[in-house]
Design goal:
By secondary structure, this protein is of the alpha/beta class. It has a single domain, classed as Rossmann fold (3-Layer(aba) Sandwich). The chain is built from eight helices and seven strands, in the order E-H-E-H-E-H-E-H-E-H-E-H-H-H-E. The protein has a seven-stranded parallel β-sheet with strand order 3-2-1-4-5-6-7, sandwiched between helices. It is globular and about 45 Å long.
């Protein structure tokens, strides 16, 4: 059994992945910003998840987090870089350059920063999975330009690290279609509006976090040892429409 680091672990996909990893017998370090949610996560997992408070958009907090893990001589067997932000939706020809700053800081720069610091802690044969979303790969909504661009950058980053590490550590990206999470609800203006929009999905609804979590845990496991440097779309056919 191993130790896995999961960012954005207190809600949505990160929460589902963290819990599934513990169900498979692993220890999880769950990163998030909300201490109340973090305490609830620890309780829900019978303390097999250790919550670590960190605002990943703040470089000094990421450095402090990784310094702590290094000092504690933590050996990681995998990382799920899940934390992200949609940013501010808007028409691409009118969005100011500043609209990219917050999105790229968390979605790209923080992901790169965490990977760089995690590599010395990762055991040979470990796996890193980055949440890239279909908007960075096959479906590009015009109102989410910065988000789509950031996720395309995550895919490129994934492939770059996969090539660099030569199989000592595997890197893959998951490109999820719509998933029923609080962050998705916020983007659509509320849960009701999200569910109404998702009624047009092939099957009539979005995925639940628990439905997509097994894909991530598979990619983090040795069972996926021959999958490396890939951007895998998981969307129930959504991108075909």
């Amino acid at each position: 059994m191993g130790t896995f680091l999961v960012t954005g672990a207190t809600s949505g996909i990160g929460h589902a992945v963290a819990l599934r990893l513990t169900e498979e017998g692993h220890d999880v370090l769950g990163v998030g910003r909300d201490e109340t949610r973090g305490a609830a996560l620890e309780l829900e997992s019978d303390n097999t998840i250790t919550f670590l408070k960190c605002d990943l958009s703040q470089a000094d907090e990421v450095e402090a987090l990784m310094d702590r893990l290094e000092a504690d001589q933590v050996v990681l067997h995998g990382v799920f870089n899940n934390a992200a932000t949609f940013g501010r939706p808007g028409t691409p020809e009118r969005l100011p350059a500043s609209a990219f700053d917050e999105v790229f800081e968390l979605n790209v720069l923080a992901t790169n920063r965490l990977i760089q610091r995690a590599i010395p802690l990762l055991a040979t044969g470990s796996s890193v999975v980055n949440n890239a979303a279909i908007v960075g790969h096959v479906k590009f909504p015009p109102m989410l330009g910065p988000y789509a661009a950031s996720k395309a950058a995550v895919i490129a980053l994934t492939k770059t690290f996969a090539h660099r590490m030569k199989g000592k550590i595997r890197f893959n990206a998951v490109c999820f279609g719509p998933v029923d999470t609080p962050l998705s609800h916020k983007l659509y203006g509320g849960e009701a509006k999200f569910k109404d929009a998702m009624s047009h999905h092939f099957r009539g609804n979005a995925a639940s976090p628990e439905e997509v979590a097994p894909v991530v845990t598979f990619l983090l496991s040795d069972a996926s040892s021959y999958i490396n440097g890939q951007a895998i779309t998981i969307d129930g056919g959504y991108s075909l429409s």
